[in-house]
Amino acid sequence: MNSTTNMNVEPEKKEFETVMKTCKSSEKPNAIWRVDLLDWVQTKDHQMCSPLIIRDCFSQFVILCKAVLSTDFESMAPLFKGIFRKYGLPDCIQTNSQAPFSSVEAGGLTRLSAWWLKLGIHHETTTPDQTDGQQTKLDFFTKLIHEAIRPVRLNLRAQQIAFTKFTREFNCVQPNQALQNKLPRELFHPSHRILPRHTPSMRYSNEFDQYQVNANGFIAWLGTHTYINQELANETIGAKMISQNKYDLYFGSLKIGCFDTDSNTLTILPSFHLNPNPSRQNPADRVPGHHPKYSDDQLIDTPSQADTKTKTEIIRNEIGSLLESIQDRRPNSSSELKN
User: Fold this and answer.
1) 257 forms bridges with which residues in the sheet?
2) pLDDT of residue 138
3) Is the pLDDT of residue 309 over 50?
4) Is the pLDDT of residue 44 over 90?
5) Are the CB atoms for 231 and 105 separated by under 8 Å?
6) Burial class of residue 104 in the structure, from the number of CB atoms within 10 Å of its CB (0-12 exposed, 13-18 middle, 19+ buried)
7) What residues contact 201, with CB distance under 8 A and at least 6 apart?
8) Which are the contacts of 111, defined by CB distance < 8 A and separation ≥ 6?
């Protein structure tokens, strides 16, 4: 009978290769697309949305500026499918190291980034301490987006109209000094890589043993259940023996971990500054009735999961005290009712 592995999970060691492949500098359209989710915005009719920005790093062409209501896979995947059908597939997608793009589990993978890999798109994450100049460009572009957001519009439709207007002016009206006073649309063209009708499955050569990840993120490994990554549920991973007691684990061409059967230790990759960022959670998960103070033109963050849990406990305690107070005031017998 299989049992759950009681293993030690260690951080990445220096000798292990970097798993997030670094894409070459963007020297042509569709080499790198930059994808960002900005902080949640609340319209004046109290509708929450988050600006999703997709742009080509070479031409600075804004591919999409969309107010999204949720950042889960079921909401994000259709948006990306529509973009891929219209503009083709990029060689690489660059994001920050936050959900829904990255996780703290094996490979740093989420359902979204795993899907990109299956389509043959490399995923590159950036961190605040990078020094290649991309962060400066991103900060400047984000400032422009914030100017497009303010003042916050009346409703979601009006907010999206403002985003669409910004996209049209940025791409087609105002010349960009960084592009030698050319327009982004003059430098951008769709990719020659088209979206396949069906998402391909990961395939491995004969030197790999293949394992199916179950719905809870485990694989059946040497008579035990070994946890890998729940974001890879129902996917197939490959295990390659590198020595008698050591295996490298892969999702496609991406190395996601190393397993030592002697010490029963799984080393997950990567282990760098991944931040799930609880502020990216759906505003629908907030405590009912809790609304942080804000002005009409102010961006607001969603409360963290810890804060939400604390507020929930406070509300439950208050409700409990109120119910006890009501119970104490009820008459104890029919005689008290008559009196």
Assistant:
1) 249, 268
2) 53
3) no
4) no
5) yes
6) middle
7) 118, 236
8) 73, 100, 231
Query: Would you list the DSSP string of 64-91?
Result: EEEEES--SHHHHHHHHHHHHHHH---S
Q: How many residues does the chain have?
A: 339
User: Residue 259 belongs to what H/E stretch?
Assistant: strand 254-260
What's the pTM value of the predicted model, to 2 decimals? 0.71
| Tokens 């936050």 sit on residue | 98
What CA–CA distances, in Å, run from 302 to 6, 33, 147, 330?
A: 36, 27, 21, 40
Query: What is the phi-psi region of residue 112: left when phi exceeds 0, alpha when psi lies from -120 to 50, beta otherwise?
Result: alpha
Residue with tokens 């497009």: 148
Query: How confident is the model over 99-143, as pLDDT tens digits?
Result: 899 998 899 999 999 999 999 999 998 865 553 445 545 556 666
H/E element, 250:
strand 246-251
**β-pairing verdict for 32-37 and 92-96:** parallel
Record the tokens describing residue 231, joined without a space. Answer: 């974001």
119: three-class secondary structure by DSSP = coil
Beta-carbon count within 10 A of 159 CB: 22
295 pLDDT band, cuts 50/70/90, is very low
Q: Do residues 44 and 153 make contact, with C-beta atoms less than 8 angstroms apart?
A: yes
* CB neighbour list of residue 171: distance below 8 Å, 6 or more residues apart: 61, 62, 183, 184, 185, 188
Name the CA dihedral angle for 211, 214, 218, 223, rounded to a multiple of 10 degrees. -60
Contacts of 120 (CB under 8 A, 6+ apart): 89, 193
64-70 long-range Cβ contacts below 8 angstroms, 24+ apart: 64/167, 65/145, 65/148, 65/163, 65/164, 65/166, 65/167, 66/160, 66/163, 67/41, 67/156, 67/159, 67/160, 67/163, 68/37, 69/156, 69/282, 70/282, 70/284
Whole-angstrom distance, CA of residue 171 vs CA of residue 179:
12
Q: Where does residue 4 rank: exposed (0-12), middle (13-18), buried (19+ CB within 10 A)?
A: exposed
